[in-house]
Amino acid sequence: MTDSWVDRFSDLAALPAEDKKLLTERAVSVSLPAGTTVFAPGVAAESFLLVLDGTIRVQQVSSGGREIVLYRVTGGESCIMTTSCLFSGEDYVAEGVTETEVDAVAIPKAAFEEAIARSSGFRQLVFSGYSDRISDIMHVVQEVAFERLDKRLAQRLLALSDPDGVIKATHQDLAAELGSAREVVSRQLKELQRRGWISIARGQIALTDADQLKSLAGSD
Amino acid sequence: MTDSWVDRFSDLAALPAEDKKLLTERAVSVSLPAGTTVFAPGVAAESFLLVLDGTIRVQQVSSGGREIVLYRVTGGESCIMTTSCLFSGEDYVAEGVTETEVDAVAIPKAAFEEAIARSSGFRQLVFSGYSDRISDIMHVVQEVAFERLDKRLAQRLLALSDPDGVIKATHQDLAAELGSAREVVSRQLKELQRRGWISIARGQIALTDADQLKSLAGSD
DNA sequence: CCCCAAACAGTGACTAAGTCACAGACGCAA
DNA sequence: TTGCGTCTGTGACTTAGTCACTGTTTGGGG
After folding, report:
1. Could you say which residues from 106 to 165 on chain B have a Cβ atom under 8 Å away from some Cβ of chain A?
2. For the ranges A126-130, A191-195, B85-89, B135-139, which has the lowest average pLDDT?
3. Do B142 and A220 touch (CB under 8 A)?
4. pLDDT tier at A85 (50, 70, 90 boundaries)?
5. Which of B100, B116, B151, B205 is paired with B26 by a 20 to 30 Å CA distance?
């Protein structure tokens, strides 16, 4: 196994061979189809997850059925929600869903703890994963508490658009990104369309003036 | 040193003597007066902090001057914001302020890494600290995104009240707890007073019907 | 003792966002 | 073609946040 998955993680690639061996021998490769619920409130974790390919969306759901996206885990990142539960034994307060097909490796709790104890590179990977997620979630708090919805919507449209400036998402999907309500997003989108910055079709939005959107997204 | 500070942390009290020795020898005791800014955006951490006594309030501040409290670190807990920055090197996105006089021990980065490598109990402490904080912050997201302000205010009044049912805080202070605006909180408080659930004085609020407040705080 | 500057609190008018209850519109499958 | 489920539009209303004020208390300094 010369081109192992460990070489995809910069913190792990430089590891001593014996540490790499520990990880590669004990890890279990998994492949998940799009739309799989990786973890959810009320389910305890049993292993640590490293994403190789694809993206996992981590979100919270309210009792009233509204949702908000907290962050996404993409290739080369660890899913700290699993780590978190592995250690504290607490239940998840969020859920993780694969947005695409996801290739990952699952490291059982025992091997995880051994790797943490032995490998400083592995510790670095796990801790920086925690740090990054805390930053992400704090950013979400900042946004929902203090920022205007039109600005946040513009940010998301820019972030979610493909190279052609197209977003394939329903208004409901966008509302879930922002933690808002579908009707509110529909009205905001209509206003952006009125200004000529986007064009709206069923299940799809095209950016027609990205510069104006960037200006709105970056306004203080 | 028979009654060392390490015995205040359940994860550390059971440690082998040599691990305790490492921590106690390398840690630096600090005592901070109330109102000290422990960390703030744009300042990098240089050591890991364990709080022995007192509380540190961790909050975010918006460009418009509004604030929101994320969580509090109390005696026997680690301040993971310092850990986070220690590892990722990223700047703080929040600020920490002592609410009372705080006794703490600061563990330099080198000793921290050594302890992490050697002591599973210390790892447990650090990881569970992370997990708890992530839960806290996710809870904040849930609240600001989805819950009504009157319910959140009732929750905070109950949480902040002393055994006599009194809260010494200005309306501005409460607004900062909730990430809302002072005028909004003033109006909410007036409504609670109109219902006879609280009584309002300058800089102080007294709960007069905690049961009704609990009912509001727990409503779904 | 009185004055006065801060800090604290109250208010009205307005804008932004969320809720509720619908009514259309579109698109695929039977 | 005709449903039927998903997606979107809309009006009326409530809740929350903003702005620009005014009023009120309070603890020093003169």
Report:
1. 113, 116-117, 120, 123-124, 127-128, 130-135, 137-142, 144-146
2. B85-89
3. no
4. low
5. B100
